[in-house]
Amino acid sequence: MVASLSGSLALVVGLAVLLLPLMASELSRPRDSMWGAVVLLLGLTLVTSADRLTGSPMLAVLCGGLLIGRLGLEVLQLRWRALTPEEQQRLLSIERWQTSLNELLITLARGIAAVSAATGTLLAALKRGGGSKTSSGKRWVRGDTPSDGTTSATTSPTTANTQPPTPVVHSFAEIDQLLQAAGSQAG
Prior knowledge:
Blueprint (H helix, E strand, L loop, with lengths): L1 H22 L8 H17 L7 H27 L2 H8 L1 H35 L28 H4 L11 H15 L1
């Protein structure tokens, strides 16, 4: 019972620390998200392992929770004292919190919309069969060209006048020969 309650409290505190940069950026620091994740992990562990924590392990968890809470309170007080009086006054105003909450809700709505759009696109691609096929169903096949550079009868006249086909290379020696041939043609 105590482990479940302290785990739930740790989950709430961890979520609050994670949301601190969004809600009160004046009080947040760069590594707060890491510590918020650690507190969330502690909360999840306490909630899921509540039946196994009895006796002295539960006493150790309670003492650790009290120490973490006291340290968190000291850090919060230190950060509050580091603010200017104008920043402290602004943090205490209701309008500022309403604005922050509205921005958070808008950000969450945009994130949910982006995830649902990506999910819809992914599902549509999976229903089509991978999405790699063209919608017209045309297949483009390049005809084989003879080594003398003339076009074969299967190559259409529009593709015969563009660029010559890229040769297939099987070794580094062939690459050297092609580079030397290209250098002699350019020079």
